[in-house]
Specification:
The structure is a homodimer. With about 475 residues, chain A is α/β, with parallel strands linked by helices. The first copy, chain A, contains twelve helices and 20 strands. In chain A, about 35% of the residues lie in helices and about 20% in strands. A six-stranded mixed beta sheet of chain A has the order 1-2-6-3-7-18. Chain A has a four-stranded antiparallel beta sheet with strand order 12-14-10-15, with helices on one face. In chain A, strands 4-5-20 form a three-stranded antiparallel beta sheet. The longest helix of chain A is centred in the last third of the chain and has 24 residues.
């Protein structure tokens, strides 16, 4: 609608300034030193929600970081969209690789650089501003609810309980999330699936204190060496995960769907440039997109042992640690995979070391059928504002809460992501293109409009 | 000789008091805050050397801490023994684990407790006092030279150059060192070998920046995973080092020598208790002592990559690092092994990662043949004063300067160590048993006497 366009045009500079205020707050959820700043970020968000026209804005405390709730109800006869997002961010290490202070946002080449610029403050803020736009132009086509958590980056440990305990409050027809990427504004895409996650930490103990590698080396089990041997055995020569039963529940995607997914353009050279690699890597028999989208993986996210400072220290370490995570696809169960992985690591550890495995994080995979009215509405909205129909894509990341929404609230989730793969999520110099930020704010109202129309045409509540 | 015994008996209380003065000086070489105290310790040592009857006592400055030289020349027809030691000490961290001030020595249960008590001020001081004893009783059987450095604990960065530049000054028939341990006064032993060292740091690069393990995981080479695979391949199933050519120059120790080395008592349960391990580990076909003493090893001294903080971070790291060192035995050359290791790591790294290898540290192994007159003299001296012939032992550590003495001066080194394995070297509550201190002072003159006799019986200079 023209009024949406002109409201956006008039106010978008202010929207960016407001987003920058949000980005200034270092809401790092994993580090308890930032506890106060995480709360401060939640409070700032409530101000913006109220200013945008939301009602019943409330901060719900949890055993961890709080959850922000808000709603704008305009009529019982209209469908309700539950917008989910998160206001917490990843740590900034290695901070020396940032070109500027991660919490002092700057705009360069029409991109906003800061931790959280894309993941997820920037994308979340599109929904706050889209609400303002629809309220101010008196054109809100649906009821909207917001549930915005502060623990997404640490695995949403308290969200599932909160959802279960606030079943009525969160009642809705669909969940709408902007926390994923699209291919580009020229080639829009919609993530129809996210992978699940099973994340563990392994601790190996050899001697009970660090030893001199000369006096003892060669006769004592070195936990660093043995951990490497264990990790090396977790992939076979075809780069398949080498844990018995790992693939047992994996959905074999049909040839038709693989063909549809293959329609998303893929530029190998661009992928190499973007990641800085010289050669791709991965499971034999699958394309790069398939390896990321429809196949499970196992990655070492961190490893450490012994002396890691400057120069040489001849230590034979007592301990070796690794953080290992698997991405999961339908119909793998994250608890089952954690069990398989834990048992396997304990089984392959030689008797000369002690092994402990701790579960850090987990969530199930999720896929939205492209026949769902929410997918159709999202696709139509993008077609309207971007001039081209999006292609469906299976994303590689994990948003475990989508499986929770489906299991507890019985509703599907649609991803309307405006990030780009080169946004440097979880990495130094995270950014969000302003063009994407603006297009997101412009597209969201169309989604609500088309979704309301689809539900009205449909039989009541059929979308559940 | 009776006069030696009685001189020692009369003066040993004073010797201990003098040693305590030396131990009061915190000559920590690695910490530049102690630069002045290191120099002060060198000066104190020159006083003691002069007092003991040494001549040409001199402090030679180096680019680091100074070297103390002294000599007592009594005749060109006599052999010359070059005594090597060091007056610098290790840091005292963790200082809270000391039962008293590390630089305020105390005597408890006939042991002297202080940093440097055994390593190496106490053992070095035995030679100063043995000189005094022989000079005062007019019974010095050889010419003696002293070279005492202040940088042993930081890898003797300036000693090799000094030795090369003072070839004539240091001309001698053998080097005598008391900086190692023996099994006990009841079961004397002599270290006949130290292992060499080849220490490198490996850096692997996959992507050129840290990536999101969901968005990219499964399709991009993970340098942590690949480094583990590379390290895992460096040992075979028999725990032998799996690098082509690694064992090519390794001296196969004869069955006779292995039998002799096996005479040193070994208590497996005590070894497990001491290290806190449940099972030993190492190259098949060799005993624990042999794995440490006569076989080369490869150990991971440190490894790091990705996220190593608290909790979960779903990063696919750009970099992975490891510190890897090999202990070497005769006749391995540390530069050749560094080359082999470097080339091998580069060769086994898959094309999808970049690999860099940096040399950090190196030194050649050294073994004194037990047929050498210096070994024979040391063994006979111990037999005389301790009543039992010592067993030869191969130590696992490295004292690279011994190889320098051999290569630059062309002479062998004999270790006449009176420390014990439980002296807490490099650890809190370092100590030296007074009985060992006295026995050391008593044994050293016999070494000189027997060595002089052996050389006289021998053809001139044959011991070189």
């Amino acid at each position: 609608m023209d009024t949406w366009q002109s409201y956006l045009q008039t106010n978008r500079q202010r929207f960016v300034q407001e987003l920058m205020e949000l980005l200034r707050i270092p809401s790092i959820s994993t580090d308890s030193a930032y506890r106060q700043q995480v709360l401060q970020c939640a409070e700032k968000l409530t101000q913006y929600l109220q200013q945008a026209g939301a009602e019943k804005v409330e901060i719900f405390p949890t055993a961890g970081h709080p959850i922000v709730y808000a709603e704008k109800h305009i009529g019982n006869h209209l469908p309700t969209v539950l917008v989910y997002g998160h206001y917490d961010v990843q740590p900034v290490d290695p901070v020396e690789l940032w070109h500027h202070d991660p919490f002092d946002p700057i705009i360069r080449n029409e991109r906003i650089y800061a931790r959280g610029a894309s993941d997820d403050k920037g994308q979340l803020f599109m929904h706050v501003k889209a609400l303002e736009l629809m309220v101010q132009t008196q054109s809100l086509p649906v009821n909207i609810k917001f549930i915005i958590e502060g623990e997404e980056e640490i695995g949403s440990p308290h969200l599932a309980d909160f959802v279960a305990q606030h079943h009525d409050l969160l009642k809705a027809d669909v969940v709408l999330v902007s926390d994923t990427a699209m291919i580009s504004l020229e080639q829009p895409s919609i993530d129809v699936g996210v992978r699940g996650l099973a994340y563990v930490q392994v601790e190996l103990t050899g001697p009970d204190h660090d030893l001199h590698s000369g006096v003892y080396g060669g006769a004592v089990p070195n936990p660093a060496t043995i951990l490497c041997q264990m990790i090396a055995s977790l992939h076979d020569a075809h780069h398949r995960v080498n844990i018995p039963g790992f693939y047992a529940d994996v959905e074999e995607v049909s040839a038709e769907e693989r063909q549809l997914l293959a329609k998303a353009p893929f530029d190998l050279e661009a992928f190499k440039r973007e990641t800085g690699i010289t050669e791709v890597w991965g499971e034999e028999g699958y394309t790069v997109r398939e390896r990321i989208g429809i196949r499970p993986t196992l990655e070492v996210n961190g490893i450490w042992s012994g002396y890691t400072g400057e120069g040489a220290k001849t230590v034979l370490p007592a301990k070796a640690y690794a953080k290992i995570s698997c991405r999961l696809v339908p119909h793998q169960d994250h608890q089952k995979i954690v069990r398989l992985l834990t048992d396997h690591l304990k089984q392959i550890a030689p008797a000369c070391v002690r092994v402990e495995v701790k579960t850090l994080h987990g969530g199930d995979p999720y896929v939205l059928p492209i026949t769902h009215p929410a997918y159709q509405a999202a696709a139509k909205a993008m077609q309207t504002t971007l001039g081209k129909a999006p292609v469906p894509v299976r994303g590689g990341g994990s948003i475990p809460i989508t499986a929770v929404f489906q299991q507890v609230l019985g509703i599907h989730t649609v991803f309307l992501g405006f990030g780009l793969d080169n946004d440097n999520l979880h990495a130094p110099n995270e950014k969000f293109d302003l063009a994407n930020f603006y297009k997101g704010i412009e597209t969201i109202p169309y989604f609500h409009q088309y979704f309301a129309e689809a539900i009205r045409l449909d039989s009541p509540r059929s979308s559940k």
